[in-house]
Amino acid sequence: AAAPDLAGRHVVVSAGGTREALDPVRFLGNRSSGKQGYALAVTAAARGARVTLLAANTELPDPAGVDVVRVTSALSLREAAHLAAKDADAVVMAAAVADFRPALYATAKIKKVDGVEPAPVELVRNPDILAELSAGRARPGQLVVGFAAETDHVLANGRAKLARKGCDLLVVNEVGEAKGFGTDTNAAVVLGADGSETVVPHGPKEDLAEVVWDLVSARLA
Ligand code: PMT
Questions:
Q1: Is the CB of 182 under 6 A from ligand 1?
Q2: Is the CB of 134 under 6 A from ligand 1?
Q3: Complex ipTM value
Q4: What is the mean pLDDT of each run of 10 residues along the chain (221 residues)?
Q5: Mutate to test the pocket of ligand 1, among 78, 93, 150, 155 (most ligand atoms within 8 A of CB)
Q6: Residues in contact with 112: Cβ distance below 8 Å, sequence separation at least 6, in sequence order
Q7: pTM of the entire predicted model
Q8: What are the angstrom distances between the C-alpha of 63 and each of 15, 118, 121?
Q9: Contact 40, 204 (CB under 8 A)
């Protein structure tokens, strides 16, 4: 069994993908299954942490010994994240959060009308939860970890994103067809604000999760 190096710690993990409603039956979403976030939650619990898992639209069973809070949209995830972060030692944002949401929500199902072209969907920006958590640390010494899903120029984009978001660690995983979203495996480079670079070879999502907790644990100590 792993050393209980996170005993006495409270960690918050987000998982899954947000859904941005267009009307009562439709949404804009993404392909996140929640597997990477759940792997983080399960491994942190095994290392002794109290874990709050913010689950956005996942179909996975609740992990034993983890507090699961269900969220839907980016705005609902934001509220739950700020609440849970209040007494957290570390927050890890593995959820795929929509950058934009529809400007208007139709309270009744949008209907097609014969001979009428559909109206374009106007989008507005969602708040950047990771940047907010990083800028306004809810607790002194709190660690904030982000994920970055990149399809190209992975490392250069990752360094720029780390600086922009202001987090302590950024897990940069390459996504694309059969990579990242929905799979049981992942590969990543974890970039530290201190300049560190940790390469995690392709393997189970739990392996990447353990490396993240190693880095978090070392920085909390
Ligand atoms: O769920 P799986 O199927 O296992 O797939 C895992 C994963 C590929 C979704 C995961 O490993 C991953 O990369 N998650 C982050 C996906 C993402 O939204 O990346 P991004 O580059 O768009 O966002 C960067 C970071 O900012 C993320 O930590 C994200 O949670 C956060 N963010 C983004 C937008 C926003 N409005 N608020 C945020 O907090």
A1: yes
A2: no
A3: 0.99
A4: 85 98 97 97 98 98 97 98 98 98 96 92 98 95 95 87 97 83 93 95 96 97 87
A5: 93
A6: 118
A7: 0.96
A8: 12, 43, 37
A9: no
